[in-house]
Amino acid sequence: MAESILSLVGLMITASLVNNVVLSQFLGLCPFLGVSKKTDTALGMGAACIFVITMASLVCSIIYKFILAPLDISYLKTIVFILVIAMLVQFVEMILKKYVVSLYQALGVYLPLITTNCAVLGVALNNVTDGYTILQSTVCGFATAVGFTIAIVILAGLREKMEYNDIPAPFKGMPLVLLTSGLMAIAFTGFSALK
Amino acid sequence: MEAKKGALGFKQNTPAERFFNGLVVENPTLVLMIGMCPTLAVTSSAINGIGMGLATTFVLALSNAVISALRKTIPSTVRIPSFIVVIASFVTLVELLMKAYVPALNAALGVYIPLIVVNCIIFGRAEAYASKNGIIPAFFDGIGMGIGFTCAITCIGLVREFIGAGTAFDVQILGEGTVVPGAVGAFLSQYQPVSIFIQQAGAFFVLAFLIAIMNKIKMNMAAKGKDTSKFGQGCCSSAEEAAADKIMADKEAGKEAKG
User: Fold this and answer.
1) What 3-state DSSP class applies to B47?
2) What is the mean pLDDT of each run of 10 residues along chain A (195 residues)?
3) How many angstroms separate the CA atoms of B212 and B236, rounded?
4) Separation between Cα atoms, residue B222 and residue A113, nearest integer Å
5) A38, B248 contact by CB (below 8 A)
6) How many pairs of residues across A and B have Cβ atoms under 8 Å apart?
7) Which of A30, A68, A91, A130 to mutate against chain B (most B CBs within 10 Å)?
8) CA distance linking residue A121 with residue B112, whole number of Å
9) ipTM > 0.95?
10) Which DSSP string corresponds to A57-69?
11) What are phi and psi of B173, to 5 degrees?
12) B79-93 tens-digit pLDDT
């Protein structure tokens, strides 16, 4: 038991820091670059991502284990997962709106944006490729989303600091954000020693 | 009245016009700047770029043709899920074909092949062009956009590979073990590859410079009074940026109302 908990902790560190979803796998770049102007919005987006990616990993791995794998139709996983994720996001939005109003007010506006986040589908597919169990998939999904939150909040903090810096005109906007992300990616390669 | 001329003076909505429109005038990566996730992720070498580009072209052309054929059947309220199913089917097809015939490339591209589903180029073309036009122009629109994407990411891959490993299409040109013979080869073998360029950080740096160059071109064009409305903002995230701005504006408005 202790050993399995330890391996889950290892999995969490690997998924959140070493193989950081944005900076080393390039998934979920669109919200990473787009919603990182202010720390508040970045935090909200990160929290919504943690919620949705954890749910999506759980649901997708259950569907894979009990429907796709036994029927030997695992080649349909891309189609099934994308539809499940799109429905899940809608469903979560409806449930939150009806029953958990406070959470909906905090996360609701970010939910439609998450459907376009390729990290959700990427994590679900990676879980299958790596042969994780349902528990491992859920933990991995949660940790990946935490990694996303860490990265986007750091980037938002840096962007707030740099907002009024004097830089060459062609580099204003997206190029500066990309250069910052590149430097962050270099910093995050330092975590590979944790493996 | 004279018919409106399309890209490069071709008649509009003919196959040739659509092809050159995608390749040059509205190049998805370099001009519209959409589909940046795969652009960053798979361009560590030129070969990967070609593989990814051709897989995307295949999906883009066929899904455009099918969506265009079904455009009168699909009700507009459920068009988004329907488009996703069509696109995902072709992506699965590509995945199976690549697994069977080019397993090495499939292993190198990994999860990014199934992730073609969420590539905004494909969805964008389905929504903006294929759902409004006939089958043949839609098919060639897909081919043109796909080849434009392939050329762009192959070039980015080539730059990263050349600086980062001293190779071009896996042939060693700079650095130790160069294929160039004689004195020139001896000189070229002095090169020390800057390995950061084939790592993740290099992708961000190369793209940053690419967008900066496009911004410069855009500014020069605007200074000369040319039309720059076709150029994208630098990422598919511009829509999300707008949404985030709106969220912030709403919040501030709420605060002011309370105060």
Assistant:
1) helix
2) 81 87 84 83 86 92 92 88 87 83 76 76 89 91 93 93 86 87 90 75
3) 16
4) 32
5) yes
6) 157
7) A30
8) 10
9) no
10) HHHHHHHIIIIIT
11) -110, -50
12) 888 888 899 999 999
